[in-house]
Fold these 2 entries.
Entry 1:
Amino acid sequence: MSSLTVELRLGHPLEDIHPTLSNGPGWRIPFWTQGCSLRCTAHCLNPNFLEPSGGWIRTVVDIVGAIQNVIENSPHSVEGITMLGGEPTDQAEAVTFLFRAVRSLGLSTFLYSGMSLDQLYRRHGALLAETDLVMDGHFDPKRYSETASWRGSDNQRLHSMGSRYEGAELDAAFRRQGKSASVRLAPNGAFSISGLQSPKSLVHRSSQKVHQSVR
Ligand code: SF4
């Protein structure tokens, strides 16, 4: 099987993807994987993405094609993709292939995981080799932070995995972009929220499609 025909189970339709300033440095296209085996907290802010069934299954080549389509039609210069969940490492092979493919387009890759960086090195070295930024650790509602860059709670850590991002550059990007949420109204009337908000600010979760970066 070609690496491009490997399938990834997403928590949302591929047609919904769009760039935001809320999911890491620069304009980035966020993805949410479907399924989380870690179940680290009873206060997970992405409960819709916990079950390993359901969702939308697409091949890596389909996803890369959708990314290229967004880039061609976006008024913004897209810097990279961000993979959230669910737990992306539950589908580590597919995410690795996807990251490798988008890097070949010149895009950067940002991985959120409920695992620690040590655990990721032990279990998912191939994926880390294709990753520019890692946000590790689970979301702890007791340590929610309004100021921690692109993370929900201050126990989580942002790691630059290579030479693409320097710490000072990331700090400057976060100062420019701030902690924000992006709300998108789709042509069919559905709306989605992505980015970092106070947990208390999310209401009507069951009736809305909410993509939340806090984890
Ligand atoms: S916070 Fe992340 S790792 Fe924890 S249960 Fe939710 S999706 Fe899974």
Entry 2:
Amino acid sequence: MEINQISYGELGSSAVLAGWHSALSADWDEARHDAPIALQQADDQPGRFSHDADRTWLWRGRGDRMTSSDARHIPVLGPEAVGLLAPRDGGVYVDGTFGAGGYTRLILQTPGSRVIAIDRDPTAIAGGAELVAEAGGRLTLVHDRFSNLADVCAGQGADKVDGVVMDIGVSSMQLDQAERGFSFRFDGPLDMRMGRDGPSAADVVARASETDLANIIYIFGEERYSRHVARAIVAARNEAPITTTKALADIVAKVVRAKPGEIHPATRTFQGLRIFVNEELDELHRALDAAERALKPGGRLAVVSFHSLEDRIVKTFLTARSKTGGGSRHLPELAQAAPSFTLLGKRPVVAGDAEVAANPRARSAKLRGAERTHAPAHPAGDLPGWPTLASVMRAGR
Ligand SMILES: C[S@@+](CC[C@H](N)C(=O)[O-])C[C@H]1O[C@@H](n2cnc3c(N)ncnc32)[C@H](O)[C@@H]1O
């Protein structure tokens, strides 16, 4: 395997992992092809997705563009999300959340498609080297945040793209590695940084004021006992620094009671800190604006979210951007901007019973999609006035 460029710099100056264009295209191994579960193959209509009566996307492809590594990762709602993009020969697509590359693999199944895949996690980018090599020049991996996707595309010579897909949130690989500090299921350093840069969860827990902690845990964790949790954290950190996932989970469990069968009492606090540390909701707001700028007319946006906070942002954005009319005849000067998107379906697509049975994480997944119109992008919206990482760390205790 040869890679023409791998380097990881500060985010903002994107690091790029691009395929060595010619040498490796012969590496496709048809015999080892494994279709991802939930995809059914049919040889009659190569290279397109279609919907069956049960709302299951069927990949109608020849199944000749993937290797055994396809089966390694089963992306949630992958066929549905990539199906919404309707990839085509010659199209350029952005996978804003490369992760283990499940969505990217599905896009690359369309011959002649090209993917610019982004992930803020350097481990995910490094893990994609093999796929870059297999893709024979059709895949470029970029270490960056998806909020920068418009600039990333321009930097790759693609000012306008045919599709943007995002599978928001944390990956199972990140959750399952104790040393990444995302989960109280394992004891590890209280880290939670997807990009391994900036303040960690331990830094926030050590530095944020009690009020800020309570707000973070309430807004991003939707924990109704947030004030109790914040008070307990402050009392504990006055005794000793809170540096591990287990230490924090134990502190929370003393003040948030859970009945048998309910989620772990620390679940919401961990979620709140993780979203805050990674500025996940701000990232999503900015990424939607960036996708609107980067997509060409007819280009498609597909977003899978796992949480109501995220889904609300996607839904609100797409509703606002797809609204027609509405200009008041009394206030004609306030006439609305022309819709920049047309919704693809009124309701979100959710996982079917089989996918949920195979992968419980799919239960909360929602997919929304829209197609870009010819109208200019709307002005980017203001971010909500919630606490920001910079302001909380600056203010301190
Ligand atoms: C749910 S996983 C994606 C899984 C992927 N669809 C697959 O099939 O393997 C989410 C990924 O998005 C990345 N991510 C989350 N927020 C990001 C952001 N703001 N910018 C870039 N990558 C981000 C995470 O590091 C993680 O690898």
